[in-house]
Amino acid sequence: MDGSKILTTTNRTKLKTLPKRGDYSTGTIYKILDDAFVCHIGFASEGQTFVLPVAYGRGGNKIYFHGGKGSRLFKTIRTGVEICITVTVIDGLVLAKSAFHHSVNYRSVVIFGKTEELQTAGEKINGLKIIMEHLLPGRWDDTRTPSEKELNATMVLSVNLDEASSKIRTGPPVEEEQDTMLNLWSGVIPIKMKPGKPIPAPGLNEGINVPGYIIDYIKRVETF
Amino acid sequence: MDGSKILTTTNRTKLKTLPKRGDYSTGTIYKILDDAFVCHIGFASEGQTFVLPVAYGRGGNKIYFHGGKGSRLFKTIRTGVEICITVTVIDGLVLAKSAFHHSVNYRSVVIFGKTEELQTAGEKINGLKIIMEHLLPGRWDDTRTPSEKELNATMVLSVNLDEASSKIRTGPPVEEEQDTMLNLWSGVIPIKMKPGKPIPAPGLNEGINVPGYIIDYIKRVETF
After folding, report:
1. Structural domains in chain A?
2. Contact at 8 Å (CB) between B41 and B88?
3. Who among A41, A147, A190 is closest to B195 (CB)?
4. CA-based nearest distance B183→chain A, Å
5. What is the reported pTM?
6. In angstroms, what separates the C-alpha of B214 from chain A's closest C-alpha?
């Protein structure tokens, strides 16, 4: 990919198990992040590890997420503690002839770092736009922009993608030599997150059609 | 649900943000766990939080997962450290007329506890069967069972579901009163993980058809 670079590994990002599945190029990492929109954020609070799901967007070399100012998660991770952010895309079930070699095809990214809090209204609006356009390109310009009160109630955080790794399992099952002759089906069942038919909100004016960018979004996820 | 009970909340499981979205009944928690097969496990190692994706299966009031004995993750979480296991099912994009009220429909479970390591060959076989049957019902009896060597290389762990909570966002977008008249589309785009057409492994004997339980699995995910 143009402009992709290889991230320097650290003790935290260097894969110890199955290192051949690792990929430290930003091209690969960005692509995986762009194919999902919910990450799992891990952080410690009073000695306890918590993992919570959060919607995010990627813009350049950062990911962005937002939450209410009262949230325990956001109150904790705004304070500069080290966090771990993991994104996993599931691509298929891998069915070998042996139980042992069953697996899952997946692509995951693990990011280490600290959050930065976006401060000005302009920065926050930009961060929120990145998150929404990541979820559904074209949506931002088709919504009522946040009021000052709404912005004040919202925390927007970013994390640099400087210390990250990706791990990928792809392709058919591995088999032991002696299993290849067994009369069992083996292969992959592909899996994909797919959008369905949009459900208009109750009471929506009937004259308002589903916008073109939503139809495009649904079409973009090609059928199997 | 028959036999469902309400779990006692603890300081770790009690929802602080939007507590009305919380559900502590085992019926709801089991259903969410049964609708996914990859969890994110958070743990601390040398003061650093890690979050890694792991396939799991639920059997009764426990979840099970397995890994190689050399894996950093499994070597750490077998030692009785407190871990946090999170499972998230994404059900849809929630598109309000205001940017502020955009959301995601989801169901998540957060579990706290320590692992127990399954010790005997019989216990391990039982745990592995639970994991495989969770991924794809009917598959276990259609595979070559693990050899003693394969079992010895595998660690199987379980965690009790005694300290857990679920959180659910469902339904249409919330709107501010003054936004209801805006000429913008609002509603929900449902999202679902869907299996595609099975891909036979290269070299698979052509006489081996896709088994009925795989066809059933694909059909069970109803179309939108």
Report:
1. 19-177+184-193 (2.30.110.10)
2. no
3. A190
4. 7
5. 0.95
6. 9
